[in-house]
Fold:
Amino acid sequence: MSKEKDRQPFISVRDLKKYFCLDNYKLAKAKTRYIHAVDDVSFDIYKGEIFGIIGESGSGKSTIGRCVLKLIDVDSGEIYFDGKNITHVSRKEQQELRSRMQMVFQNPLASFDPKKTIRFSLEESAKVHKIKPEVYKARIKQLMEYIALPEDLLTRYPKDLSGGQLQRLAIARALMLEPDFILADEPVSALDVSVQAQILNLMLDLKEDKGQTILFISHDLNVVRHVCDRIAVVYLGAVMEMGTVEQVYNSVAHPYTQALISAKPKEHPLENKKHILLEGDIPNAVDIPEGCRFAGRCRYFKEGLCDNRTPKLKDIGNGHYVACHFPLGIDRSKTAADM
Amino acid sequence: MKRFRFIIKRLLSMIVIMFLVSFLVFVVLRMSDADPLTVMIGNNQSTPELRQALTEKYHLDYPVHIQYLRWIKGVLSGDFGTDYVDGQDVKGLIMSRLPITFGLVIMSSVIGSVIAVIMGVAAALRKGRPSDAAISGLMLVLSGAPSFLVSILILIFMTKYVPGYSFIGTYTNFGEFLQRITIPSLIMALTFVAMLGRITRSNMINQLQSPYIATAAAKGLKQSNITYKHAFHNAVIPVITVAGYMIAGSIGSTVIVEQVFSLPGIGGLLISAIEENNFPIVQILVLFMLGAYLVMSFVIDILYTVLDPRVDLK
Amino acid sequence: GCFNNTGSGSGSGSSGGNSETVLRVGYTQEPSSFDPADFTIVAATLTGYDCYDTLLNFSHDGTTVEPALAESWEQVDDTTYTYKIRQGVKFSDGNEMTMDDVLYSLNRVTEDNYYMSYLFANVDSFEADNDTWTLTVHLKQPDSSWQYVPATSACTIVEKSVTEEQGDKYGTADGKTVGTGPYKLSSWSSGSEIVLEKNENWWGDPDTLDIDKVEYYVIEDESALALAAKGGQIDFVEGMSNSVMSVYQSCQNFNILSCEGTTSNYIAFNTASKPFDDEWARKAVAYCIDRSQITTTIGGDYAKQSAVVPMSESMMYMDKDKWDSTIAESDVYTQDYDKVKECLAKSKYPDGFEFDFYTTSQTQKQAELLKSMVDASGAITMNLVEVPDSDIFSYMFGYKTKDNGERYYNAVGTYMMSDFLDPMGMLKTLYAGSNACEGGTNETLWTSTEADGLLDKAAQTTDDAEKMGYYTDAYKIFADECPYLGLYTSSDVYAVSDKFTYDPSPMFWYNFSYADVHVAK
Amino acid sequence: MKKGNVLEIKDLSVDFMTVRGIVYAVQGVDLEVKQGEIHGIVGESGCGKSVTSKSVIRLHNEETTRYAGDIYIRDDSGEKDVLAMSKKQLRDFRGSTAAMIFQDPMTSLDPIMKAGEQIAEMLRAKKNLNRREAREKVIEMFEKIGITPAEKRYEQYPFEMSGGMLQRIMIAMALICEPKLLIADEPTTALDVTIQAQILKLIKKLQQESGTSVIFITHNLGVVAEICDSVTVMYAGKAVETASVVDIFDHPAHPYTKALLESNPRESDTEKRMKSIPGSPPLLYEKFKGCAFAPRCKYADDKCRSCVPVTENVSEGHSTACFKWREVTSQ
Amino acid sequence: MKKKNKAGTFFTPVVAVTGIFLAVIVFVSLFASVIAPYDPLATDVNAIYAPAFSEGHIFGTDGLGRDLFSRLICSARTSILNAFLIVAIEVVIGVPLGLICGYYRGPLDSIVMRVWDVISAIPPLLLSFILIAVMGKGMMTGIIAIGISYIPLTTKTARSMIMTEKKAVYVEACKSMGFSDARIIFVHILPNIITPMISQFTLDIGTAITSMATLSFLGLGVQAPNADWGTLLRDGMGNLYNSSALLFIPAICVILVTVSINLFSDGVQNYLDPSSRKLPSFKKYEKKHRIKKLSAVKANGEA
Ligand SMILES: Nc1ncnc2c1ncn2[C@@H]1O[C@H](COP(=O)(O)OP(=O)(O)OP(=O)(O)O)[C@@H](O)[C@H]1O
Ligand SMILES: Nc1ncnc2c1ncn2[C@@H]1O[C@H](COP(=O)(O)OP(=O)(O)OP(=O)(O)O)[C@@H](O)[C@H]1O
Ligand SMILES: [Mg+2]
Ligand SMILES: [Mg+2]
Structure:
């Protein structure tokens, strides 16, 4: 699989850090507490692939996405987009970036301005980015065909449409500016299973027909597995494991990923599945434990090492990365000694 | 410890605000085109000697900030100075009028809040029924009726139809005191009923619709228990805030009833002081009302931390 | 009901037995202090006056003076008067009055620039003889009106030791008040109530006092006061305005008493600045105004239309016929818009002008009526400027002026009372050039050497007929130049519960005393 | 009531009066829950799952709700008609015979009352325990279901706890009076998979220990497979299919059930593209002339569009409301 | 979705009645100079204190013989205009300031909020008094003073609303599409938060009328010869015994108008917030919409 190495990453994120300040405007700065939403995250996304980020709620998935889109400022680290460092860009450049990167949100109803018609919402970004009316009118026509919705929906208000329709329109809105990159933040979590499929198929279409690059955030293992090419598993703001879908699902290397996959409910009542139950809750992102962040809930926890040293994310072959002192399926004694 | 720190912090900020506002008011008053000297001289013949004497007595030749410092120093040591018009001791003037104002404020806010909460809760529990419409309608009407009009109409009514009703003179004992302030307090209470009642109602309705009430019902608790222990407790917290601010604010609105019912309170004193440009009185009363407001909001904050465990003491 | 028998003042005047007789007085203002130096408002007259005595008293009709603290007096020459001071008079605190106190009280008025000091403008010096208990007054020049001054509040006697010790606090609600009068201050609740009690140390005959206790209530709103009176909580009200008069008139148990006093209502034109430096402009305005309408509408039942020179009939006691004929020939201003045009044509403003008319809330209705009359001329526009009651004097007396020294008002509507019934009390106060200054009472700033000369001559004559001559001559000048336009003179009115009787005196200002209020038989 | 049934719902209709008109939220649902089973209800959002389950304890606002049909429930003292209960009976029945767990534990608990006390309060009202006894019992319960450290948790307020912990509190609250029937309305939807697994395991364990019957509402077919014994599939206010969980997965008889199963992404799917149901579920402002699913159904014909299908038995314990079930099962 | 059965409408009887009444008042005050039978300032000494309903003077006259009806409708213009000015001050300053503070937060927000805290610490009436003490009494001072005392609350409301609204997903969507802040705030957020504030503004018109009337009543607001309702009330109070109509008619008028405004804005509020609307019973609704009755109602055991 050396092919991976030759390809130029389209987006690459290096050592991304984002802390949220808990106490606003404190006079004495002494003991300000931070939420470690994203802590030293690095990954690459290649052109034309769907890259998935999976993790539990509060693990920093959305924050990563937002940083990549430059919707929030990063605290440290670098983001490259199409070979260009966009970590610190001028307002003007940022404006240009906006038209190249678009976003689809979890709750389609909420992502439309309730007081504006769908048409207004679709046209607005084109107008702001100074696209000619005849161009964007034609484009809307095309897109409505593409997402298989009748054009008369355009005159309606968001509340008069169903979730599935709205999510497709949201994708159409994202496509209005013909972006190079789409961030889909849990685009199907708020939808029913019966409509979920429509959206996921549309995502796959985008990749296949248009060669769209997509960052797909989700907490549903099955969905991720279905649409993504490569995925990163995050826990408490850090990447635990990263690789192609096959690598991560079929040769799990990190105990957390393992637990996550095994926590997934059965697919058939008669399936015999043994869950590896994780104890307790995710620790809060304010007081990040020393060493491995997963140590507290890990079955393979080893005192003195796991609670002392933070494991680095490292390649265990063919672009399969893991951040664990004792990756599964590899001789334990050896790896620990490596470090 | 946390609470102690919080209290200290709040107290400090209160003091800062008091100083700032009192300084602002002090300066702003001196920017008005009323000249303290003419106010003091009033109807007396103005001679250079008199002007000189008064200027010296009141230190009017000092820069404003020095004047302010002198004044605030005096206030802090309990000397409120003498007023411009009659040369009376401001402290005495205010002290003799405080009971009425405090009486009005306390009585009206206690009566008003209690009635408001009762009416608000009653209306919320009967939401959509005729009795709710009646109560809410009444509260709306009350909030529409200007209180000075209500005062006048009631005064006319009382003197006409309640023969022994006396609204003049001072009081010599507590009974008389109560009697003087009861009717005016009731009128002031109407404002509370109108405002607080509506807030209570909408809060209560909101709370009654929230999921935890469904939980409480699913637990099989008594309706009264659900209403009062859960919904009411939650609904009353914001009501207390509003009530607190209203109480503090009502020190200023005693003016109207004091005026109409010829009550010797600080509201009337303030109005005449403003009309006469009697700055020493205006200054100290503004400071006083602001202080009352800040103390009240402080009390509310403290109360909040007791009533609502979610409030983080920062 | 729950409001029966209320308040400390409910004991009524006629309740029999040995209970004390209480008079409940209502008024819209509160005196600022009981210091005679501050007796500038009616409220002070209604409260503080009876705590003190003056050297002399006005007779009931106000035309002559009678002994009081001075048992007798004598005019030694044109400029010297001697007064024999009563011995054995005690202050309400029990101390005996001395010549020291007398001298102190008089000098206090001259030295400290008190409100009354203008009455002493002619005084050269006071001299006290402790042995013979005589007070000698040396005047700078002959002044026929001096004879009345000892009966004014300028000659109120205070106790030196107390006054000096109290300083600024003297006479205030939280200070002491000590005098020799028939009543003494018993309690004072600032903002609501003042109680006077009989002074057991009074030098006069205590049996002449029917009233044991006076309760004075401050009810700022006149309508509320009327309500209280109607409800039987007040026995005595002074100076009700026309708008509430009907309440008292409709009250079965109230008698309305009136007495022509010295109060005159008028418009004063500021003759020191445009447009009223032009006499034709003043006359144009004067011709706009229908004084009889104003008298009936604003003054009401107890007002009489005034002549152009503001002076009440009670001050014309000397030679009524001569006054009448003088007024008849000099007072030409009746409403006539043609005349207005004529006057304007003669003035510097043939096309009309605008002016600022200063007024207070008390006289606002009158101002509105005046405005409608003036504006109806079509050429002159009157702008109303309302200033607080407490401020109007600082404008009128020139304490508050524009930066160039000019006064703000073009005209002002106000009223004045005389210190004594002699015409001098009004004419000199209003028209004398010496009063046209800062702090002076001539708010028109109008001066005429001729008129001043006439007034001076009148002051130096003791012969009534000769005096009348000077007065009427001066009067003609005043009427012709029209710096003031008299509107109406109003009587002093009292509403007195039928449990009491009272015989008002035209010199209410200085002559009022609860000693004259009696329980009705 | 059949023997062995804890709950029988017969032809239940629930209508709501709203500002936009009457909502016919549930339109003639039949449902049986046997003693000691976990009965799942699945269906799309808005199909009436919650309304049906809340009706079992009559939790809807009585003023704007109209019920028709019957709800019978059996407890130690015999059969009871829920819809005929008086307020007092209803109060005694809630919490002790049937208890309920809601989807969002964060808003379902009184925010300003200590978590433990909210449970103790219930004990004191229902079992006449005093403060101390109630507390002891609650703490005992906490320990049993892993709310540790129990003493500390008792004193905590809802906002101080995580979602998973709060859901445990809710479960403790529901089970403390040992009800015959536990209604769990999407208790894990708001939780993460790892926590969901914990809660599911807990519910299963507690159910097995106590023999309580459970109505488990979810829209996640995986969860159904994981914990339910039998399932009712609802669509647009109607129960379209009822069967044992294995039958539902292996022999779906209603086209909707079938489509639902097909559109669920599965590990075993090799095909990337998934099947989806076209269109969207209808609004419930009126009653349907024909089968509500007809507009989205590939088997539908004119009869489906004009006649309301009646419930037919497919096999023992397996029934469906579809004219075409034979066609569906035969494929 | 075929048929939209609305169970509540905007025009409830209360809203209709108060709305029509207010419309009439506004109309009359707008055309006061045409409608008024007399010049409101014209005095007529021959008709002093004419009683109400007397010939030629429907509401009677005052102590200067001025026609009360004409004065009432002309002062209605002043009162209503003033109230609108006050609310305009509040809206034009308060809303944008609140939006900007709430959207950007940061030091500007802290400063503005502290200042407003202090201003709202002074009771509104007192604040007006202080401003009047400084700027001199008069109509404009009154309007500004009352307007200012309303600003803090509006700012805070707008601020807290935008702070909630800012978190809405559509705002983030707007940001992600590169819209300018001004566009986001004024094109998108404002229309979404202004609706609930509108009923507050209508309410404020009512309180503004009362506040201004209070000032005028105390002699600090509108100055003679101009009149607003407060001045009329002040006059009426002074003339209570000569002609009680002078007090009672303006009093009834003020109370009717302010109460109507309250009822009306409550109606607006109810319309905007359907959850507070009163629902018809099932029976009534089905009868009205001819819906066939379903099975028998069975619930409420004790019934
Ligand atoms: N604007 C913010 N201010 C403060 N804290 C924030 C902010 N945004 C996110 N956080 C915190 O950062 C952490 C990560 O949040 P994030 O939204 O990225 O998680 P997520 O993985 O997307 O979760 P979910 O699955 O719930 O969407 C959380 O603890 C969250 O509370
Ligand atoms: N109290 C109510 N008043 C009016 N309509 C209601 C009420 N409760 C529910 N509905 C309506 O009834 C229908 C069924 O709602 P229900 O809550 O049972 O759906 P659900 O199957 O639980 O969906 P979800 O999976 O979203 O929880 C919906 O259309 C809903 O809008
Ligand atoms: Mg997220
Ligand atoms: Mg539900």
